Amino acid sequence: MIKVLANDGIAKSAEEAMVDAGFEVDTTHYDGAELIAKLKDTDAVVIRSATKLTSEVFEGITGGKLKLAIRAGVGIDNIDIPAGEKAGVKVTNTPAASSDSVAELALGHMFAIARHIGISNVTMREGKWEKKNYGGVELAGKTLGIIGFGRIARSLAKKAQALGMSIIYTDFIGEVEGFSDFKFMSENDVIKNADFLSLHIPFDKNKGATISKDQFAIMKDGSYLINCARGGVVDEAALLDALNSGKIAAAGIDVYEKEPTSNTALINHPKVSVTPHIGAATSEAQKRIGAEVVELIKNFEF
Hints:
Blueprint: E1 3-6, H1 12-20, E2 24-26, H2 32-40, E3 44-47, H3 55-60, E4 68-71, H4 81-86, E5 90-93, H5 99-114, H6 117-125, E6 143-147, H7 151-162, E7 166-170, E8 183-184, H8 187-193, E9 196-199, H9 213-218, E10 223-227, H10 236-245, E11 248-253, H11 264-267, E12 272-274, H12 283-299
Parallel strand pairs: 1-2, 1-3, 3-4, 4-5, 6-7, 6-9, 7-8, 9-10, 10-11, 11-12
Helix pairs in contact: 1-12, 5-7
């Protein structure tokens, strides 16, 4: 019997589907030595963002049964892929399942910072009526700049266009076919021309932050930044400087350099809308992710 460890949990529908397919499913969360011991006797592991499959973990399971590691989501920066391959473990993810949910969260942050929704929630609950402080802007007529034009970014672009925004984008592969309504530009030109700048790229630890001091310097005065991609893509210290100086009007942030974040200056900033890495945390996305995970395991040759 194929043993599956869903170490960060999984949609109930997916768990039931795997059991119906004859798999043994464990949804307990393990850490450290317990995780390594469990993986030695597991055929497939499914993780989300909480579990880190490091080189130490893969080295520790040498001689074990593990053959498949699935990131239930898009980013796989919490899995050491070369170490996994060296240990004979296939690493994969579910890139399509959560595109709309992450795009909707990015759009939600755009509305929140454009209309001061987050901070006005806070001040009203403090008994304040600061109506004159919260003059906002409309999304319609603004330019949305997107860095990285994969599935999530394309979903966001379509939704933003429906709201009357103009879309400019950049991607390392160049101009993407089938999206002639949107204008391809260099990364610097996107940064310079965007009223709202949204990031949809992985974090490259060798490259470091994509948006830091130099990039904030060329952004439009009073522009807005959205990061629902990965922590580290934005230099948090540089972001705070840009917020405090007024260079950018506000930011919407779902991901952080360290998670859970301890950057209280950022999360308590009145010009920031924050969420705790919940881009894929919708019931619909989790069901789609679960279904994709089930198919990946069913089709894998153990």
